[in-house]
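wait is this the right file?? whatever heres the structure
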């Protein structure tokens, strides 16, 4: 049994296992399918394993972009917490002033 490989934009991509019978008289014996490149399963496995260990530059840059976004969000969260703390202090101060005014009225 072999594997059918199809060319993608980046590399060969494993698609379907094809037996000798299908290659000789079956679905892969005529037409466009007859021109598909076939390789043995062990070779397809080795190729797939090799490709899986190669660094994906798009993935790496996407990870970096996400890390930067997370840093910006974390900074924003710290700002919000700081502002909330300042506002809470201001409200408490206003409350105390109001209580003092109410206290001296009575």
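ok assuming it is, sequence goes like this
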């Amino acid at each position: 049994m072999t594997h059918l490989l199809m060319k993608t934009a980046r590399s060969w991509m494993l698609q379907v296992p094809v037996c000798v019978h299908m290659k000789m008289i079956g679905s892969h014996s005529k037409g466009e399918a007859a021109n598909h490149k076939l390789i043995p399963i062990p070779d397809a496995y080795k190729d797939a394993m090799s490709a899986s260990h190669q660094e994906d530059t798009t993935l790496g840059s996407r990870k970096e972009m996400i890390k930067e976004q997370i840093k910006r969000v974390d900074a924003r969260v710290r700002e919000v917490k700081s502002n909330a703390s300042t506002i809470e202090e201001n409200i408490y101060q206003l409350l105390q002033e109001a209580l003092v005014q109410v206290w001296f009225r009575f």
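Strands lie at 2-7, 12-18, 37-40. so i think its the right one actually
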